[in-house]
């Protein structure tokens, strides 16, 4: 089942790229026809000078933009802060706006070394993405997120994950591209909920036998680790 899913993913990706290339070719061809033939004009149109905003002005724009994201989150229940290059979570904005009941948050591509504690207090959250932030630790307070079913921690610097994480009713847990050396046995607590576990591209040397107790598990990805064997119960499970 897992191999089939990976093949389909590659096929869709290639197809998408092919469609994009086709669209670009058709667009370029149409543009040349409008210019009167297959050869583009040799004289490029004049480009007006570009005024580069000062660093302080750019920072003001970023601050206003982040503030706007919180304002929208208060209305929509979705907090989108991906790619903002934030070095820390703007907790003062979390106090300014009523976002305790948001259901989804994306904090990816920032520079958080630690999961903000105020995020753990958003008890209605169902989906949380924190990809590529340099995250090094997860507080035990994460267990407060009792509505969370989707958690993406890919591309960080995690060396371990707290057992408190497995007291959440997770259905999808993505841990690829970290520095994990083991998966806690407490993962068995997700036996009735976890459907997908991606722990690929880590430093796992073994898997706990308890992973075979995950009776709802449908997708398991542990490639590109240092595994020498799999639990016998897991082989029978699939």
From TrEMBL:
It comes from the Eukaryota. The keyword Secreted does not apply. The keyword Membrane does not apply. Keywords: Leucine-rich repeat, Repeat. It holds the Pfam family LRR_1. GO terms for cellular component: cytoplasm. Gene3D superfamilies: Ribonuclease Inhibitor. This is Leucine Rich Repeat family protein. It comes from Loa loa.
């Amino acid at each position: 089942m897992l191999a089939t899913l990976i093949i389909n993913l590659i096929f869709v990706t290639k197809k998408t790229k092919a469609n994009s290339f086709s669209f670009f070719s058709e667009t370029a061809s149409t543009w040349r026809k409008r210019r009167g033939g297959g050869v583009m004009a040799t004289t490029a149109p004049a480009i007006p000078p570009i005024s580069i905003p000062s660093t302080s002005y750019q920072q003001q724009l970023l601050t206003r933009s982040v503030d706007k994201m919180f304002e929208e989150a208060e209305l929509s229940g979705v907090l989108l802060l991906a790619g903002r290059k934030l070095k820390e979570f703007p907790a003062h904005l979390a106090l300014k706006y009523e976002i305790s009941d948001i259901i989804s948050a994306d904090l990816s591509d920032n520079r958080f070394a630690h999961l903000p504690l105020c995020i753990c207090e958003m008890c209605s959250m169902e989906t949380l993405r924190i990809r590529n932030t340099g995250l090094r630790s997860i507080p035990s307070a994460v267990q407060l997120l009792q509505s969370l079913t989707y958690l993406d921690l890919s591309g960080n610097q995690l060396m371990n994950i707290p057992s408190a994480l497995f007291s959440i009713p997770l259905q999808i847990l993505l841990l690829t591209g970290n520095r994990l050396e083991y998966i806690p046995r407490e993962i068995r607590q997700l036996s009735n909920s976890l459907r997908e576990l991606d722990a690929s591209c880590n430093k796992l040397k073994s898997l706990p036998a308890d992973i075979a107790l995950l009776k709802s598990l449908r997708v398991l990805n542990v490639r590109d680790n240092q595994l020498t064997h799999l639990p016998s119960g897991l082989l029978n499970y699939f």
